[in-house]
């Protein structure tokens, strides 16, 4: 093995190689030894760039999440922002059917996902959700989206799915219907939990006569 090939190895190349391997053969085929063989290096060479297999996987997931664009909180109505994120996450899953189940198992606590979770928190807080409400709202939205798209990609991502006899994504109108139901439910929860507005009492003018 040439020293030239070793020098070209870097974090980006390792992450891209891991993503390509998992996209082609599935996450179950991924190992440091297998990735090293793919990149033409010994497995131990990979640990110079990443401390663990999990860190490599997270870097690969970061490449996938980067397709969502910068994790910024949009300035539009919060309802539209949540729907946009839901649609983009579903589209991401359909582009990466073998990778999406990994995003589900790592959750929003994944280092790669944290910036996006923070942006969503900002939008929800701006809408009037606070504390546990923000967490519960994010779980409600992602719970629906993740459940729906797992059915979309189940032929690739879930064991035994071929036996269920359905392939291809579910109809888009079904997704839009469910997404609207979730957002309307969050609107109702916000109205229910928000304190009622207190009318400001204006003192009557004094009689100067």
What secondary-structure arrangement, pairings included, does this model have?
Blueprint: H1 3-8, H2 11-25, H3 32-39, H4 43-46, H5 53-65, H6 78-95, H7 100-106, H8 114-127, H9 132-157, H10 172-193
Q: Could you characterize what this model shows?
A:
With 209 residues, the chain is mainly α. Helix content is 64%, strand content 0%. It has helices at 3-8, 11-25, 32-39, 43-46, 53-65, 78-95, 100-106, 114-127, 132-157, 172-193. The longest helix is centred in the C-terminal third of the chain and has 26 residues, at 132-157. The protein is elongated and about 85 Å long.
**What's the CATH class of the largest domain, please?**
Mainly Alpha
Unreliable parts? 1-6, 157-165
Structural class designation: mainly alpha
Domain module tally: 2
Could you provide a short overview of the structure?
By secondary structure, this protein is mainly α.
């Amino acid at each position: 093995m040439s020293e030239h090939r070793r020098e070209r190895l870097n974090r980006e190349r390792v992450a891209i190689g891991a993503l390509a391997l998992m996209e082609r053969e599935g996450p179950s085929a991924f190992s440091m030894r297998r990735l090293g063989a793919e990149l033409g290096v010994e497995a131990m060479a990979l640990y110079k760039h990443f401390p663990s297999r999990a860190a490599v996987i997270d870097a690969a997931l970061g490449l996938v999440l980067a397709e969502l664009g910068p994790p910024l909180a949009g300035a539009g109505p919060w309802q539209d922002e949540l729907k946009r994120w839901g649609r983009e996450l579903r589209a991401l899953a359909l582009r990466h059917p073998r990778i999406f189940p990994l995003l589900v198992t790592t959750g929003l606590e994944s280092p790669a996902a944290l910036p996006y979770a923070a942006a969503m928190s900002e939008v929800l807080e701006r809408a009037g959700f606070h504390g546990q409400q923000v967490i519960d709202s994010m779980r409600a939205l992602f719970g629906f989206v993740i459940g729906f798209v797992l059915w979309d990609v189940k032929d690739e991502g879930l064991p035994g799915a071929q036996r269920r006899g359905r392939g291809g994504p579910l109809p888009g109108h079904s997704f839009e219907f469910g997404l609207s139901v979730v957002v309307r439910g969050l609107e109702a929860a916000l109205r229910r939990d928000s304190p009622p507005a207190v009318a400001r009492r204006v003192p009557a003018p004094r009689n100067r006569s």
